[in-house]
Amino acid sequence: MTTSESQLKTSAPKSFVDSSFFTRFSELKLNEYKLDDSLKDVHANMEFKSLGSSQAPSISLNDSSLDTLEEFESSLPIHSNFIINGHIKNVNTLEDFKKINKLEFLTNAGKFIYDSIIERTILDDPTLLSYFQLLSFSDLKKYKYYYWFCFPTLESDWTMVKQTDLIDIDPQTINDFIVSSKNPISILKTSGENIEIEPFSNLSQFPTDSDLHLLFIDTSTRESDCHYSIQNLLTALAIYD
Question: How many structural domains are present in the chain?
């Protein structure tokens, strides 16, 4: 690494779990899940519309997070959130929660992202790069809930060589594309002064030796770091190179 190169700094999101999530989870635990501790689908939202200054990235869960994707999406304000899909594993005792191997749990979550890259499913659904897993234990008698989020970050050899001025593009054009695609990553195709936004799924149409501009919606507004999933994006690009 030369003196002009540096590692890109990233940060994991803060998690905000509404109390309604646990109310809903208690119902499912009693009536449906019972002693089943297998992975279950869970949804979270990542707001991009109204971010404060110097704000770390965050994800939020509510009582619809354990419902279908369509039901969860309908519970959110329109055109203001990316939806992130993950899995929750609820164990049956506090002892199980404490003794579970967190590193192995994190590694398995990272493997899910890696497999999604290898299988190229991230091209159609870039939010898979923000995949998370949630480990939990619910003491329903005492109304106590224990949980631990993991946000896997894959490593690559990419370094930041330089920062340049932003490409001059109409913000409304970006906003319209985000609203229609519901994805935080897209491709900027430039031809002279003309700039077009294309879906990330078109990545395979670009030769690996061509200049490529990607649009990454960073929900971290801190100048010191970016949303952690950009590292997973860079890993994907390194694998596809």
Answer: 1
